[in-house]
């Protein structure tokens, strides 16, 4: 009985958390300030970079692990690799500009296409500017700057610059439900660009998960 | 994970065993420990990832495998129990889930290697070359798909190794260079029970 009560409580709590307002803020005026879009653009690096992060992930069931993630950007392709802390490569793939995915290595549990596509989508969202022009700029919920982009598929990206210096990206699907929340914090200067020490990505929904990324190295290559 | 640890221990046991055979000794490997620097290279990497760590193995089945950087982690195996800890904000937390159970199976193999099956195994074909180089090639096709070969560089006749290079595929390898190696020293049990 005690166990049943606990499960019911957990169910209610998780239901409440899923009922959070995860829809985009609305703006009365649709204007685009070029100065603000310029600032939003600086959320994403330009040129050729190699990033290495420790990535701790937690699934909805509480299980998780820490891996090392490698991201290489060269302006044309996005290459990514996941390896155990011991260095054994679990996943390696390359995404060309026209979204052509080449999976070079994928070991269990990272050996299904859905995982690969999801991973590359997350990596793109974290490191690359949204594939669209800004449709509106304005004030974020917390008084910072917001730049909104909508891509060809109707997916919406809100790039946020908060007053405390942290930055973020909220992604909404075409029905305006939030699918990803990304927060970047503790910036420092590397090769003339501001690079976040910490990144957190939350995937929303029933099969949600959280990735906590901590910068190990950032190299302009 | 499991392959890498297995292979490194296999390599140490193999080399130690060979050194002892050469000297006509009957002493078994009771413990092995060493510092290591690990270089990880992948085709996508412009610069390799460097890790540093230390490991301690005590027969029959106790292991401490610790990385100090870039992420401080400790894998402990003792009395049939396998646990992995990772340091977050200065505190070790135990990691649940992924991959830990498979280590139990690996340990059984390590034990059999320590019992004398040190050169010819069902898993690897072992070839000795000049300049203290030993090359291990997987016999199993499934294993060969993820590990092309392993090269062991011996440290003279000490029974210890200078380096291990694990080739995963074209342009992809993990090289560990060992230092401060020691055989058959007394190891306190707490080394294998506390992160």
Structure, explained:
The complex is a heterodimer of chains A (221) and B (195). Chain A has 221 residues and is α+β, with helices and mostly antiparallel strands. Chain A has helices spanning 2-18, 34-41, 113-127, and strands spanning 49-59, 64-73, 78-83, 89-95, 101-106, 134-139, 145-150, 156-161, 167-172, 178-190, 193-203, 209-220. The radius of gyration of chain A is 18 Å and the shape is globular. Chain A starts with a helix and ends with a strand. The model of chain A is unreliable at 1-20 (pLDDT under 50). Chain B has 195 residues and is α+β, with helices and mostly antiparallel strands. Chain B has helices spanning 2-22, 102-114, 141-144, and strands at residues 31-41, 49-58, 62-69, 73-78, 81-88, 91-95, 124-129, 133-138, 149-154, 161-169, 172-183. An 11-stranded antiparallel sheet of chain B has the order 6-5-4-3-2-1-11-10-9-8-7. The longest helix of chain B has 21 residues, at 2-22. Chains A and B meet through strand 1, strand 2, strand 3, strand 4 and strand 12 of A and helix 1 of B.
């Amino acid at each position: 009985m005690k166990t049943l009560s606990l499960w019911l409580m957990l169910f209610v709590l998780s239901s409440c958390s899923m009922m959070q307002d995860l829809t985009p803020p609305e703006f009365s005026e649709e204007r685009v300030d070029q100065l603000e879009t310029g600032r939003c653009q600086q959320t994403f690096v330009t040129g050729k970079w190699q990033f290495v992060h420790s990535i701790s992930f937690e699934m909805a069931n509480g299980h998780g692990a820490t891996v090392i993630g490698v991201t290489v950007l060269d302006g044309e392709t996005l290459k990514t690799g996941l390896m155990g802390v011991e260095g054994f490569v679990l996943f390696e793939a390359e995404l060309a500009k026209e979204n052509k995915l080449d999976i070079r290595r994928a070991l269990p549990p990272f050996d299904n296409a859905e995982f690969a596509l999801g991973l590359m989508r997350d990596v793109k969202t974290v490191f690359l500017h949204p594939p669209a022009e800004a449709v509106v700029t304005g004030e974020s919920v917390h008084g910072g700057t917001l730049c909104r982009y909508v891509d060809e598929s109707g997916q919406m990206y809100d790039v946020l610059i908060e007053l405390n210096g942290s930055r973020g990206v909220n992604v909404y699907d075409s029905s305006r439900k939030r699918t990803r929340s990304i927060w970047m914090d503790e910036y420092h200067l590397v090769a003339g660009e501001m690079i976040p020490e910490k990144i957190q990505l939350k995937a929303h929904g029933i099969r949600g998960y959280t990735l906590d990324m901590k910068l190990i190295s950032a190299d302009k290559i | 994970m499991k392959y890498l640890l297995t292979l490194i221990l296999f390599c140490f046991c193999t080399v130690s065993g060979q050194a002892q055979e050469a000297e006509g000794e009957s002493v078994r490997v009771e413990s092995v420990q060493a510092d290591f620097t690990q270089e990880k290279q992948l085709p996508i990497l412009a610069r390799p990832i460097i890790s540093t760590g230390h490991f301690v193995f005590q027969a029959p089945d106790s292991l401490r495998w610790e990385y100090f950087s870039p992420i401080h982690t400790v894998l402990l195996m003792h009395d049939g129990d396998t646990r992995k800890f990772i340091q977050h904000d200065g505190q070790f937390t135990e990691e649940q889930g992924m991959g830990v159970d498979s280590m139990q199976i690996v340990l059984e193999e390590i034990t059999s290697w320590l019992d004398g099956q040190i050169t010819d195994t069902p898993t690897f074909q072992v070839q000795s070359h000049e300049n203290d180089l030993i090359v291990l090639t997987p016999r199993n096709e499934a294993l060969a798909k993820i590990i092309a070969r392993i090269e062991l560089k011996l440290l003279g006749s000490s029974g210890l190794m200078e380096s291990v290079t694990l080739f995963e595929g074209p342009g992809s390898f993990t090289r560990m260079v060992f230092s401060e190696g020691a055989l058959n020293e007394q190891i306190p049990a707490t080394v294998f029970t506390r992160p």
